[in-house]
Design a protein that fits this description.
The structure holds two protein chains of two kinds. Chain A is an alpha/beta fold. Chain A is 24% helix and 34% strand. The chains are: A alpha/beta, B alpha/beta.
């Protein structure tokens, strides 16, 4: 049986599996950020006047804002002028079928295991793949079209459904929300757009895969999902990036709008490059995600499995505006080596009988630091609002840290809010129990961790659950507490 | 941050501090203490003077409306300290309690002890004298590193208070009851500094009551700082009863340091009255195998703003801490709870528990709760819980089905809710006293 130190070394030396670079000719905008950058992007994407103006408003907001200081980690200095804000594969013509796509690119997605090709589409996943800044191909579009579902790249949506985009973009995450959201608003390059019409239940999981390939580029995608009255959609998002010594910034924005009786389920498996064992390189994953339950009985559910990125910093939130609406947040965040995760959620209870449920599981190993930061806010009109929060932390090794910062604000005396948090390590008795039954310590730990995270993993759609489970056991391979 | 000169109190303390150096009031103090005052005041200024809601620790406690009033600083040639008012002493009296009792008016003690002669091994001194004693000066000199606005202000400008020391191995059988009376005709800033030193293997029970005159007279802003040092194997049971009237704004900071195998119990009861109460209770577990219990109960009415900040700083292994704070909110009052548990990397085998429960009775009351864990050691058991809720409909129905009127039933439930905290009080007379105070303030009309 390996001893603790060997095991910790083992985890630390585990290489990043998805660290390959795809050699494709790219259209890259020189590094730097000014109004011309924004005009260039907007022009390149043939955007209407109002969107350019909105971008410029975002840029003004960005210039006014300072980097925040309240977070529970040392924010490395970010030089926004050293980032290239636009990178696209040079092959610019429109594809009619996948055969026309650059084979290198297809091979990349093959390696990532994305069921992009039609054969693989038997798994029933419609994929919109975002490669650096441009949405490459969207599968299954025709089938979705029959139901009136719009699933396309953000750029396409701007051209084809400008009225929807104009109505909802920035309605949940305003252009001036925070510095990274403002940056995204001004330079966002592409992303996904989903519209589910009234009463339609989307028959398949919609999925996007993000990949940052080029050095010194940031990825600023923007996702907008609108579920009209009585509709349902489940959306998956996965992320990887090649190994680089330099840090890359990922500042995305996700906006969800659920109208009356609609339900949106948003799942993320995030496996950006976390940097090497000394904390060199890796992605800064600073994402603003927010949903609004606009109508009565609406429901928004966030599920995330965070295993990658040097720094993960995000708080998927739900504004519970409609009466009887529901918000959920399920999260597993794993940090090891020098990784940092500062994540959690915000639930704003505005309407009556609104409910929210927060389950957060943090796992820290090596020198990793994991923070849960959450806000549950009950407004004066949120009669009978109900919240339940549980955040547990598991510590593996004596150099890591686990932190919880829950904020509870209640302005209504009929509300019931519960919060509980625990921190502990894997019990020796648990490992001993499994050892006795012929399960070696490594497998025992994997088993215990999977059991620990099960409540969250269960929320993921089937295909993702399997992948997430694998990811968890790979990430924490051989970690005996 | 830039200082906020528009606040009249800020100007007053700046003038006060400038006067301090010329008045000669600190002439007999050690040069180290004078330096501490200087650096504490510089720190206070560099922190921007008084805190605003932009400061994370004051996020829910907006002082703006309290800082509009003008105050004069007590001491250093300010108004004379009045003699204790017998009716106020009576108000703070705990029925049936056999104790040594002393009375401080605006932080000053006249030297009299009632309830019997003090036994050997306990020493009570006026801070006005102690701070000029070279042997004791060291107890006032260690505040400079603090980040707290008010603590620094106190460290810079304190004049008086009470110094309590229990000799090694001495167990003081009878509790010590300190009655803090705050009274003034004009608006006044009072900054008492209290020091508690419980030497090795000694034991002391102390009750501190805060009372004030009615709403007539001036507003008194109390910025009190208590330093508590519990040496190895010593035990200190510390109870605070905050029953001051509406004219009082109370900022009470208690900084506790615990050494090996020591025990510190703190009970903080905040009752209706003072319009602003901010308690900062910080316990630093500087050596191993310590035990700490923090119990709090806040019952708020009217426009009260009651804020309890606690910190349990686990620096060494094998320490145990347990914290239970409960709140009952009435009227348009606001309750704030922030409990931080910090476990250092060295502090393996730590057990730290924390709980905050709130019963929000009035529809206009607000509660902001922020429990917080920061853990850097892996072999620990730490948990916290926080709840906000209402009367259980079932419990109410159960009582009413048995012929108990709604108001009485609610009263019973509030008492039961508070019981978890009050039952922990070790002295029966104090427990009865606290229960009576709670019953007194449970209004018959809950709207």
């Amino acid at each position: 049986m390996p001893n603790d130190n060997e095991i910790i070394d083992n985890i630390a030396n585990k290489e990043y599996e998805f660290g390959f670079v795809t050699d494709i000719e790219m259209d890259i905008l020189p590094a730097g950020l000014n109004e011309n950058t924004i005009r260039y992007i907007s022009e390149k994407k043939k955007e209407p006047e109002w969107l350019l103006n909105w971008r410029l408003k975002g840029f003004q907001a960005f210039q006014k804002q300072k980097l925040p200081e309240w977070q529970n980690f040392q924010l490395p200095p970010i030089d926004f002028q050293k980032i290239s804000y636009y990178a696209a594969p040079r092959n610019k013509k429109k594809y009619n079928s996948l055969d026309e796509v650059d084979p290198e690119l297809l091979a990349t997605f093959e390696k990532l295991g994305i069921p992009l090709s039609e054969q693989k589409a038997l798994t029933g996943v419609a994929v919109d793949a975002v490669f650096d800044s441009i949405s490459i191909a969207t599968t299954y579009k025709d089938k979705l079209k029959e139901l009136g579902i719009i699933f396309c790249s953000f750029g396409e949506a701007v051209q084809e459904h400008p009225e929807l985009v104009q109505k909802y973009v920035g309605s949940v995450v305003p252009h001036s929300d925070n510095i990274f959201a403002a940056l995204n608003a001004s330079v966002f390059s592409d992303g996904s757009f989903v519209y589910i019409p009234k009463g339609v239940r989307c028959p398949m999981e919609l999925s996007t895969y993000f990949r940052i390939n080029t050095e010194n580029t940031g990825q600023f995608e923007r996702t907008l999902i609108i579920a009209d009255e009585g509709s349902y959609v489940s959306y998956l998002e996965g992320c990887t990036a090649p190994m680089r010594d330099e840090n890359q910034l990922h500042a995305a924005v996700v906006e969800l709008v659920a109208l009356e009786n609609a339900e949106i389920k948003y799942s993320t498996v995030q496996n950006w490059y976390p940097g090497d064992k000394d904390g060199k390189g890796g992605i800064y994953n600073f994402v603003t995600k927010r949903g609004i339950c606009k109508g009565a009985n609406a429901k928004i559910s966030w599920t995330q499995v965070e295993t990658g990125s040097a720094i993960t910093w995000k708080y998927p939130s739900v504004i519970l505006q409609g009466d009887n609406s529901t918000g959920e947040f399920y999260s597993v965040a794993v940090t090891r080596n020098r990784q940092i995760a500062d994540t959690g959620t915000k639930m704003y209870h505005i309407g009556r009988n609104t409910r929210s449920r927060i389950i957060s599981k943090g796992i820290s190993a090596g020198h990793g630091n994991n923070s849960y930061r959450g806000l549950v806010q009950i407004g004066p009109k949120a009669d009978q609002a109900r919240n339940f929060t549980q955040c547990d932390s598991l510590l593996i090794g004596d150099q890591c840290g686990a932190h919880t910062f829950p904020y509870i604000e209640s302005k209504n005396n009929t509300a019931t809010v519960e919060h509980e948090a625990t921190t502990s390590k894997i019990g020796e008795d648990q490992i001993f129990y499994l050892n006795q039954r012929g399960i070696d310590s490594e497998k025992a730990v994997a088993l215990i961790i999977n059991g620990y995270a099960k409540e969250v993993l269960n929320q993921l759609p089937m295909e993702f659950a399997v992948e997430a489970q694998k990811l968890l056991s790979i990430t924490l391979e051989g970690s005996v507490g | 941050m830039t200082p906020s000169p528009s606040i009249p109190l800020f100007e007053e303390v700046v003038n006060g501090f400038n006067k301090l150096s010329v008045s000669g009031g600190t002439k007999k103090e050690s040069s180290d203490l004078r330096r501490t005052r200087q650096s504490a005041f510089e720190k206070f200024r560099s922190l921007g003077g008084f805190p605003s809601i932009r400061n994370e620790d004051w996020r829910y406690t907006n002082l703006a409306r309290f800082l509009k009033d003008e105050f004069t600083i007590e001491g250093w040639g300010g108004p004379e300290t009045p003699a204790p008012d017998a009716s106020l002493v009576e108000k703070a009296h705990i029925a049936g309690l056999d104790c040594y009792q002393i009375v401080l008016v605006n932080g000053s003690w006249d030297g009299t002890v009632t309830g019997g002669e003090l036994p050997k091994g306990i020493q009570l001194l006026k801070v006005a004298d102690a701070r000029q004693d070279p042997a004791l000066s060291v107890y006032f000199e260690k505040q400079a590193g603090w980040n707290e606005h008010f603590a620094n202000l106190n460290a810079a400008l304190f004049t008086d208070g009470i110094f309590v020391r229990v000799e090694a191995g001495v167990v003081i059988e009878k509790p010590l009851h300190i009655i803090h009376i705050y009274t003034s005709e004009n608006n006044l800033l009072v900054q008492p500094r209290n020091v508690w030193v419980i030497n090795k293997n000694a034991e002391l029970s102390a009750i501190e009551s805060v009372v004030s005159g009615g709403s007539e007279g001036g507003i008194i802003w109390v910025n009190s700082l208590s330093d508590v040092l519990v040496h190895a194997d010593a035990r200190f049971h510390h109870t605070m009863l905050q029953t001051a009237g509406t004219g009082v704004r109370l900022v009470q900071q208690t900084s506790v340091r615990q050494h090996r195998q020591s025990l510190y119990n703190n009970f903080t009861f905040t009752l209706p009255g003072a319009e602003l109460v901010r308690n900062d209770l910080q316990t630093r577990l500087e050596e191993d195998h310590t035990e700490t219990h923090l119990y709090g109960l806040y019952l708020t009415t009217g426009n009260q703003l009651v804020d309890n900040h606690t910190l349990v700083d686990h620096q060494k292994p094998h320490c145990f801490s347990n914290e239970l704070y409960k709140g009952v909110l009435l009227g348009q009052s606001t309750g704030v709870f922030n409990g931080k548990v910090y476990v250092h990397q060295e502090a393996q085998k730590t057990n730290a528990f924390q709980q905050n429960n709130n019963l929000v009775i009035s529809p206009k009351a607000t509660i902001d709760s922020k429990p917080q864990l920061e853990i850097f050691a892996d072999d620990v058991k730490c948990s916290h819980g926080s709840t906000v809720g209402q009367f259980s409909e079932e419990a109410l129905f159960y009582l009413r089905a048995r012929g108990i009127g709604e108001e009485a039933a609610k009263g019973l439930l509030i008492n039961a809710f508070a019981f978890d905290v009050t039952e922990k009080i070790r002295i029966p007379e104090v427990e009865t006293h606290v229960n009576e105070l709670i019953s007194l303030h449970i209004p018959t009309n809950h709207a």
